[in-house]
């Protein structure tokens, strides 16, 4: 498969020690030869692959020096894209890196589309679709656990498991074809049905194992949507600042200071939290605060975890009890804050309302209780679980949806086979399961979906 030569900036924009402009394609080395001059006057077309060279970039028509660079040359297929790749290391800075990119573009390269380098790696057979998606997961990883999951997927951990499942189904389909081609042998059908049920049952069990990891995998990939909930002035914004370890939210003694939701990402012992500090939920005549309260209620509906904050130095109110009722079916941790003040809250009633949910006491003003809260959050989602390196975690929403579909179709195949449905009819569900699993790794996926997935990547990847 041949493509034109693309170029893009592969490092974040801004000031830094170095920046990298990457070229990939059949003309990458020839384009670099036009604009690169080295002290030994060697042409890049004659040098060894996977070598780095010092020199200057020049405007070919005028020989005007554009930049001092280190240029890495890598010949395909032993590259990320399996094409010839040139990486130009120049000084970091907006002007410098843009001049280098423009020089490459005016001498034969085309500006890459978002994710096009990784897309070429997929289309050229270096990686499958699940591995390509793991590249972006790795870039976006917010914790060590999330990074380990992405690395495992990039290494082909999920791909190999999906490949084994598809191979088992393929062998089953081959057995079915024998049955269809040689109907005169009665014992073939007797042998086929048990084998079909056995293979499909194994595939069904393996899919179920993968789906068991999906909730944790999705949390690791996307972060746990965590809403800080409570009445005004109980310490919600102080809690956000303590977890983020930065003064992100305004903290005052005036109730109703927070008027809108504030979002921040934080790593709590390997659990990525997407923290949402909400406006205190109460009845109010203030129009702006009322809008904030409504947004708080909306955030609450989409939350994975609630950090419900109560005031140790205040009595438990009817509003507090209503909030307990609102979140009763959700995962939540009760935080009793301001323990540095004289107690007024009814702790026995709090324990009765919380039931089996964890209760943590804190004094955010004196920075007490944060470690216990972090431990409670981590325990709630990972206690007793195997570490990420020991399991094939499924973290991608697309993969999870496809696995649910495959689980349904293979169950249909098993049910039909056990009910005595003709084997050639059962074959339809088995084939559909094989195709759905193929969509995960990109074997049976449509081009429009491929384009959509890679469009979400950053430009230089």
From TrEMBL:
Residues annotated for (6S)-5-formyl-5,6,7,8-tetrahydrofolate binding in this entry: 22, 87, 126, 461
Descriptive protein name: tRNA modification GTPase MnmE
The protein's assembly and partners: Homodimer. Heterotetramer of two MnmE and two MnmG subunits.
Source species of the chain: Lysinibacillus piscis
Keywords: Cytoplasm, GTP-binding, Hydrolase, Magnesium, Metal-binding, Nucleotide-binding, Potassium, tRNA processing
Signal peptide (from-to): none
Binding positions (K(+)): 233, 252, 254, 257
Cofactor mode of binding and number, as noted: Binds 1 potassium ion per subunit.
Primary location: cytoplasm
């Amino acid at each position: 498969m041949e493509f034109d030569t693309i170029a893009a900036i592969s490092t974040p924009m801004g000031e830094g020690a170095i920046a990298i402009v990457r070229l990939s394609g059949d003309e990458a080395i020839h384009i670099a030869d036009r604009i690169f001059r080295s002290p030994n006057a060697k042409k890049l077309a004659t040098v060894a692959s996977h070598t780095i060279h010092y020199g200057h970039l020049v405007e070919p028509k005028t020989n005007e020096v554009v930049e001092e660079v280190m240029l890495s040359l890598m010949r395909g297929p032993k590259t990320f894209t399996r094409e010839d790749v040139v990486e130009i290391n120049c000084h970091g800075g907006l002007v410098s890196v843009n001049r280098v990119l423009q020089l490459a573009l005016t001498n034969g390269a085309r500006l890459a589309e978002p994710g096009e380098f990784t897309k070429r790696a997929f289309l050229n057979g270096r990686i499958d679709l699940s591995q390509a998606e793991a590249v972006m997961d790795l870039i976006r990883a917010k914790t060590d656990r999330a990074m380990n999951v992405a690395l495992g997927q990039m290494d082909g951990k999920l791909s190999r498991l999906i490949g084994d499942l598809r191979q088992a189904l393929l062998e089953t389909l081959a057995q079915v074809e024998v049955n269809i081609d040689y109907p005169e042998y009665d014992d073939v059908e007797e042998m086929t049905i048990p084998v079909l049920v056995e293979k499909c049952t194994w595939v069904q069990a393996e899919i179920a194992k993968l789906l068991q990891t999906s909730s944790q995998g999705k949390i690791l990939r996307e972060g746990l949507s965590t809403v800080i909930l409570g009445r005004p002035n109980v310490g919600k914004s102080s809690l956000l600042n303590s977890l983020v370890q930065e003064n992100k939210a305004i903290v005052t003694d005036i109730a109703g200071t927070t008027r809108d939701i504030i979002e921040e990402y934080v790593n709590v012992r390997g659990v990525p939290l997407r923290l949402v500090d909400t406006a205190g939920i109460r009845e109010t005549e203030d129009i702006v605060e009322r809008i904030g309260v409504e947004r708080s209620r909306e955030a609450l509906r989409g939350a994975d975890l609630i950090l419900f904050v109560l005031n140790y130095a205040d009595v438990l109110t009817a509003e507090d009890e209503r909030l307990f009722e609102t979140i009763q079916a959700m995962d939540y941790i009760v935080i009793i804050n301001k323990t540095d003040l004289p107690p007024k809250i009814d702790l026995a009633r709090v324990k009765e309302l919380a039931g089996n949910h964890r209760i943590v006491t804190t004094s955010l003003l004196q920075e007490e209780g944060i470690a216990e809260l972090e431990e409670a959050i981590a325990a709630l989602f990972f206690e007793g679980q195997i570490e990420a390196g020991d399991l094939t975690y499924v973290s991608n929403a697309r993969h999870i949806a496809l696995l649910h579909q495959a689980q349904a179709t293979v169950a249909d195949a098993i049910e039909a086979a056990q009910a005595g449905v003709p084997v050639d009819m059962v074959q339809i569900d088995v084939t559909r399961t094989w195709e759905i699993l193929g969509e995960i790794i990109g074997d049976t996926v449509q081009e429009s979906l491929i384009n959509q997935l890679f469009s979400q990547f950053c430009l230089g990847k």
